[in-house]
Amino acid sequence: MFRFAYPYVLWLLTLIPLLVVVRWLWMRKRAKRLKTFGDPELLRRMMPRLSDRRRMTKFVLILSVLALLIIVLARPQMGLKESKVNKQGIETIIAMDISNSMLAEDVAPSRLEKSKLIVENMIDHFSNDKVGLIVFAGEAYVQLPITNDFVSAKMFLDNISPELISTQGTDIAEAIRLGMHSFSSNKNVGKALIIITDGEDHEGEAEQAAKDARDKGIQIFMLGVGTTRGANIPLGDGNLMRDNSGNTVVTKLNEDMCRDIATAGKGVYMHVDNGSEAQRKLDAEISKMQKGEVESVMFSEYDEQFQAFALIALILLIMETLITEAKTRHKWFSSPFKRLIVPKAVILLLVIPMAASAQNVRSYIREGNALFHKDDFAGAEVCYRKAMELDDKNMLAYYNLGCALQKQNKTDDAIREYRNATQLDGDKRIKAMPWHNIGVAYQGRQEYDNAIEAYKESLRLNPDDDETRYNLALCQKLKKKQEENKKDQNQNQDQNQDQNQDEKQKQNQNQNQDENKNENQNQNKDQNENQDQNKKQNNNEQMSKENAELLLNAALQKEKETQDRLKQSMRQPVNRQLQNNW
């Protein structure tokens, strides 16, 4: 790929046609002036050593030198920013159970958090390997396609929670089948499928899926998290999960199932508890696997190509100096030659160091890259900043500086440098890279609106980037989930406010009832006295009223029995629920 570091300098090439026009006007004016001295043919005979052809050749050479010097100042570069390197490593797909049962705290701090810690420590030991993430509960989804971007893998790992999958349960078979199709087609590399679960397989068929994975050369590692005595499932609001019958759920590690799956896949089972034995055993087993060539994408700076253009300019400049406008017999290295060649050579020598300074920029970037790969991110930052001092328009220096800052958890500074890189001129596919990293940084902060906009901008520049497209879809899903959670929280707050108001109203009503209690008692006494006086007068009327009430009650009872019979004969609606939602 050929490019110019400073393409805007090429606008100076418009001077070439302008100079051609100016020379044509000057030659035309010169011809008119010569006509005032006499006949042009006679004048030509009087100046036999004058050569129009030589004059035109010198002019063309000067224009060529000027064009080449402009190209040198624009810094022509050749090379590929993106290169693929084959390294020795393995491919690992991690399928993590995120069902509600993984929230149990029989393993500190919880089954899910312990699983995350194991995966993070394992990724820290990876170098030339590839890793992918799958989450599963009642269903299975790819959280991160297989990649060698370990920074993104850790960020995706942090965002894992049971809320990612609405269908609860535990379908290990589906996770195994999805993992089988998530590896690359490379048959010469070791492939590990690590399944982290508590073994509560409510769907079945996991053993057959493990056998299918074994037949395809995939090594199965089963990590059983939890204890056999079990634990309750906290819901985060102080309550415990209950089943459909209202009983408190106790989730237990099903070690037998985990062992059976590992045996079916000729793999290894490891029990994860509060210790670190499972971590050491997993690292040891992974290190034994066959390492094959894993293709990785590497990014490197362009090679400067100004030297060739500068050399051609120097040669043309010497040729232009050696050619005189008039035919002469004096030697080339005479005094006139020196007077012509020295000023032009000085100009050329002033231009070349301006382009040569790019070599120092390139060396600083290379030194920074070497320190970056040695995890010396602070040292890499210093080198990138030195490169920026020499060339404040170098997109690669800004981008690499952002990566070094992000590694040091200086997220705000990293985003600023990424944005500076996007403001510089360069190839669209290269400019998409800082936008992608901006999205990853915002996604790690759960600022999904900003992350979505950054990913969209990256895809506008590089529509073929599948990883960015996947991140965009995931952020949109997480944003929707975040909005739903906020909506639920607002509803809960409103309900709490209503309950508080109801309680206040009840308290006021109780106070009013206490105040009116005494008055009612006095009134009741007066009423009783009046009733005694009028009791005798109303005996006949009361007898007739009692008969009427008895008839009315009998009719109502008969109507109630009729409605009960109708209700029993009607078909009641049934709400379908998962039998096990943990």
In short:
Helices cover 58% and strands 12% of the residues. The protein has 582 residues and is of the alpha/beta class.
Structural account:
This protein has a six-stranded mixed beta sheet with strand order 6-5-4-7-8-11, with helices on both faces. Strands 1-2-13 form a three-stranded antiparallel beta sheet. A two-stranded antiparallel sheet has the order 3-12. Mean pLDDT is 76; it is low at 330-338, 533-545 and 565-578. It is built from 18 helices and 13 strands. The two termini are 54 Å apart. It has 582 residues and is of the alpha/beta class. Helix 4 (111-124) links the parallel strand 4 and strand 5. The longest helix has 70 residues, at 466-535. Helix content is 58%, strand content 12%.
Please write out the topology.
Layout: E1 2-4, H1 15-35, H2 40-46, H3 52-73, E2 76-78, E3 82-89, E4 91-97, H4 111-124, E5 130-136, E6 140-147, H5 150-158, H6 172-180, E7 191-197, H7 206-215, E8 218-225, E9 231-232, E10 250-251, H8 255-264, E11 268-272, H9 277-287, E12 292-299, E13 303-304, H10 306-322, H11 335-373, H12 377-390, H13 395-407, H14 411-422, H15 428-444, H16 448-461, H17 466-535, H18 539-569
Parallel strand pairs: 4-5, 4-7, 7-8, 8-11
Antiparallel strand pairs: 1-2, 2-13, 3-12, 5-6, 9-10
